[in-house]
Amino acid sequence: MSEAAPIRDTSKADAVYALAGELLPALRAVARSKGYALAYHGSFARDIDVIAVPWLDRAVDALELAEAIRLEAQRITGHTAFVMNDEKAEPTNYLRRSPEPKPHGRLGWSIHIAGSGTYLDLSVMPAGQAHVDSKVAELERKLEASIDNTLKQSKRAQDAETSLASVRAVRHVRQEDVNGCCVACLAMVTDRSYAEVRAYFIGVGKTFEGEGGGIHEYDAESYLSDHGFAFTRKYRWIGNNRPRPQWPAQSFAPVHILGVRGGGAHAIVLLPDGTVLDPFHAEPRALADYPDVAYMIGVWRLHEHRITEAF
């Protein structure tokens, strides 16, 4: 016994075909008036596929042709004809955007006819400058979306880091050398011991003996870079030795190292809530206790690994 062939529901196809027969003569006349030849293709099973090709030197821009065809479809059917163009849609979501740049300089529009259950699938080939403009606009939207996504990811990462810093208490580390304040600050912001940070700098030739001993902000930044942290530094002075308008600057990182007293001779740690951890003092302090702030180093943790080698 042979298998029966599937029965095809032709009701919609018949309705689409009938509408196409009603529209195409008028649409061809409009296209001709605009300098184009218009032909149909496809099965008319779901939509009405038409393609327009510039035929005369006086052919208008593809955008003008598409609008003229939309208006004519609306006039013939007596129903609203419209295209979707949602500026908030994804950059390449051409179910909600138009026109769609297609291969070989072709532009495509879906012109929906209200109440008909179908639409005109119009292609204009080639579309010249209109195609170039649409393709540039698409690439600009992609770039803008990519930048927005990067900024959102960066903001989420920054918010997460700030939240983590507020949850994970920064240990108050005291300096064990007269000139060990910066070492103690590094121990606090990197969650290491004073001895561990000090040993690192001894290993790279630094000394903590005598008046010239200790490390400076440049050494601290080098240590941060080598141990999985990012940083940025702001000075009190900008440009041609002009004072920064707002100083000290507002908190801009999960945690900060500040240089205070005599151009930055002493280092302290500033937490996001404004608390100051001073390696020289046992109790937390306030930023108002330090009127002479020379620089601020914002610190971000990038990853959780340790580099034990001395560079």
Keywords:
six-stranded antiparallel beta sheet, Beta Polymerase, domain 2, 311 residues, six-stranded mixed beta sheet, 22% strand, disordered C terminus
SSE layout and pairing:
Layout: H1 11-33, E1 36-41, E2 48-54, H2 62-77, E3 81-82, E4 100-102, E5 106-113, E6 119-124, H3 129-167, H4 181-190, H5 194-203, H6 217-226, E7 229-235, E8 237-238, E9 242-243, E10 255-260, E11 266-270, E12 275-277, E13 285-286, E14 293-301
Parallel strand pairs: 2-6
Antiparallel strand pairs: 1-2, 3-5, 4-5, 5-6, 7-14, 8-9, 10-11, 10-14, 11-12, 12-13
Helix pairs in contact: 1-2, 4-5, 4-6
Describe what this molecule looks like in 3D.
The chain has two domains: 11-137, Beta Polymerase, domain 2 (2-Layer Sandwich); 181-301, Cathepsin B, Chain A. It contains six helices and 14 strands. The chain has helices at 11-33, 62-77, 129-167, 181-190, 194-203, 217-226, and strands at 36-41, 48-54, 81-82, 100-102, 106-113, 119-124, 229-235, 237-238, 242-243, 255-260, 266-270, 275-277, 285-286, 293-301. The strands form three sheets. Strands 1, 2, 3, 4, 5 and 6 form a six-stranded mixed sheet that branches. It has a six-stranded antiparallel sheet with strand order 7-14-10-11-12-13, sandwiched between helices. The chain has a two-stranded antiparallel ribbon with strand order 8-9. β12 (275-277) and β13 form a beta hairpin.
Report helical residue fraction: 25-40%
Give a short account of the largest sheet. 6 strands, mixed
Total beta strands:
14
Shape: rod-shaped
Mean pLDDT across all residues, rounded?
Answer: 85
Percent strand equals 15-25%
Name the structural class: alpha+beta
CATH architecture annotation name of the largest domain: 2-Layer Sandwich
Text of the CATH class of the largest domain: Alpha Beta
Show unreliable segments: 1-9, 304-311
In DSSP terms (H or I, runs of 4 or more residues), the helix count works out at: 6
* Terminus-to-terminus distance: 84 Å
* CATH-assigned fold name of the largest domain: Beta Polymerase, domain 2
